[in-house]
Amino acid sequence: MRRILSDVWNLDLKIVEADFTLVGVNPALDRFTDLARQLRQEAEEQARRHGRELGAAVAIIPPKAA
Questions:
Q1: Residue 26: what are its φ and ψ, rounded to 5°?
Q2: Most C-beta atoms within 10 A of its C-beta, which of 2, 13, 20, 22?
Q3: What's the predicted TM-score (pTM) here?
Q4: Which secondary-structure segment (H or E) carries 2?
Q5: DSSP letter string over 32-60?
Q6: Average pLDDT estimate for 2-10
Q7: pLDDT of 9-64, one tens digit each?
Q8: Are 46 and 16 in contact (CB under 8 A)?
Q9: Residue 18 and residue 36: Cα distance in Å, rounded?
Q10: Residue 50: which of 21, 17, 20 has the closest Cα?
């Protein structure tokens, strides 16, 4: 999906990834609960930042004439 949106459609993508998403699902990863919580929180903050940047960029684009 990333390649299509970026390479084919030439979109400027900002990707947010959260690691350790299987903590709480896979018992072998339970020792990483605190780290997973921190990484998820950082990813959510980054996603909000990207959303605000996108909203600001779209707000300055004039609407197309009908």
A1: -100, 110
A2: 20
A3: 0.73
A4: helix 2-3
A5: GHHHHHHHHHHHHHHHHHHHHHHHHHHHT
A6: 89
A7: 888 889 999 999 999 999 999 999 999 999 999 999 999 999 999 888 877 777 77
A8: yes
A9: 8
A10: 17
DSSP state for residue 28 in the 8-state scheme: G
**Which residue type occupies 11?**
L
Token pair in block for residue 35? 């780290």
Residues forming beta bridges with residue 3, ordered by sequence position: none
In which residue are the tokens 């605190």 written? Answer: 34
Bridge partners for 23 per DSSP? 26
Distance CA 24, CA 33 (A): 7
Q: How far is CA 7 from CA 10, 14, 23, 36, 66, in A?
A: 5, 13, 33, 31, 30
